[in-house]
Specification:
The chain is an alpha/beta fold. 40% of the residues lie in helices and 17% in strands. The longest helix is centred in the first third of the chain and has 21 residues, at 59-79. The chain binds pyridoxal-5'-phosphate.
Length: 403
Amino acid sequence: MYDINQVRADFPILARQIYGHPLIYLDNAATTQKPRQVVEAMVDEYYNVNANVHRGVHYLSQQATDLHEASRETVRQFIHAKSTNEILFTRGTTESINLLAFSFGEAFIHAGDEIIVSTLEHHSNIVPWQMLCQRKGSVLKVIPMSDDGHLDLEAYEQLLSEKTRLVCCTHVSNVLGTLNPVQDIIRIAHEHDVPVLIDGAQSVPHMPVDVTALDCDFFAFSGHKVYGPTGVGVLYGKENWLDRMPPYQGGGEMIKNVTFEHTTYNTLPYKFEAGTPDYVATHALATALDYLSALGMENVHTHEQELTRYALQRLSKIEGLHIYGHSPNSVISFQVGNIHHLDLGTLLDRLGIAVRTGHHCAEPLMRRLGIEGTVRASFALYNTQKEVDALVEGIQRVAKMFG
Ligand code: PLP
C-alpha cells in the first residue's frame, strides 16, 4: 500500500481552503486533480523541448517526437495492447467514440443495421451512435437493466441478431459505479461475430485494465480522468478493424501522398491523427500513467474499494438517504429525503465539499430510475476516510437545516 499523506502532498490543490474549510474533493468522476509530476512535465516540455513533432529534422523536433511516441508506448503498456499501432491519441473519450462512430460507420454501417448500447451509458456513448443511425438509417437498441443498476444479460443476448454490427458498453457506470460484466458482454457479441467498444472513462483511473485479455475490439478513455491533462485521450482499436476503417479527419500527418486529384493515407496509427497532436499533453498523460504504475493499480483499486465500501456503509445509516446502485467502484449516487440534489450540493460546497449534482450526462438512465438527478460523490486514490466522515457530517448538517 502507498503512503496516502505522501501521495496527497503530490497534489498541491488538495491543500486549498474553500470558504474557510479544507477542500474535500469528491468530484473525481468528472475530473481528477493533477500531481505535481504531471504539471512539471508539461512546464518542462514547454520550457525546454517544445517543437512540432514528426516533421522536423532539428534536435528539438526529434526530442519532442521521441517523447510523444514514448507516450504511446507507455499507454500501450498501461492497457496491455499488443502494438502501438492500436493506440490512437484523441482529445478524450468523447472524441474517441465520435471517431469510431464516424469511421466504423462509414465502413460497416448500412440502412437497417443495428447498434446496441446499454441503459447505463454516458451521453458520449449514446449521441454519436444516434447521429450515425440518423445518417445511415440504422437502428439503436438498448440493453435493459435491473432497478439496482445491473444489465440484463439474457435480454442482451436476445437483442443480438444478424443485423447487429456493434455493441457499445461502458466498463463502469459514471452514475451508479456498476462494474459491467464486460468479459461476458464481449464473449457473447463475439459468438455472433459482432465487435465491441468498451467505454473505459471510469475504469482506467480505478483498476488494472488489460484490453488484450478482455478481447474488446475498441476501448476509449480520457487523460483528465486519470490524473493527466485535459484535451487528450485514447482510442484503442484492434489493427484488423482500424486497417479497414477510413480516416476521421483530413489534414497533416494522416497522409502518405497528396495531389489535387488523389490522397493516399498514412499507416496506423497516424491515419487517424490529422493535424498537430497535443504532444505536450500526451507526454503529461504518460507521466500520469507512470505515476499510477509506481503506486500500483492494484493498490489504487484496493484503496478506493475500501473507501467506497466505508462510505456506502456510513451513508446508508443516514436517515432518509437513498443510494442508487450499491457498487464499491469509486462512485456513489444518492438523494436525501426530498432535499433537492442541487440544494444539497450547494450547501455541501459551503462546507468545502465538492460533489456533483444533476443527471451526470446520463439522462436516459435518470429516466429509467424515475428521477431527475442525484448527488454524486466519487473517489480517487488520494481520498481518505476522514473526508468521507466530513461528507457524512456535512449531509447530516444540511439534513438538519431542512428539518
Ligand atoms: N464516458 C463516461 C463513462 C464518462 O464518465 C465520461 C465523462 O464523465 C465520458 C464518457 C466523457 O468523457 P470526456 O468528457 O472526457 O470525453
